[in-house]
Specification:
With 155 residues, this protein is of the alpha+beta class. It has three helices and four strands; from the N terminus they run αααββββ.
Amino acid sequence: MCRRSASFIAAALPLAIALAVASAQSARAASWLEMNFYLSGPRYEGVMPPCDYPDALIKISSRFNERENNFWNTNLKIVAFERIRETAYRPWAANTIPRRFCSGLVEVSDGSKRAIHYSIAEDTGIIGSTWGVEWCVVGLDRDWAYNPACQMARP
């Protein structure tokens, strides 16, 4: 039995060395077929609604209301939007997801007015089929997702 395992090791050792040498070779570039067959990459058009688009504002206020009610157990709601303006459009590299950054003021149901920062991005809605919205109300970012003071929601 000892001779058998020694001969097996002697036969397997060259195979293991050959596999190690073969895998240590440098990576090669993708072939034409690999680069062009179903791997075309994203084709962004940069078509997004403007900052004051009613559907975007409705989406923000309804999600804010739902989050405050369901997760933080408050009755806070966004009552109105004021001074909405665009702060940046596609501020990053050319092939990144196109985003329109916006800022303004919201009136909250407790009577306070707070700054809001949000972005409307192409293909970030449900299953990438439409535009999506990410937003942050300064002072009400309770899970600190965009801390400090909603700075991470800005360009």
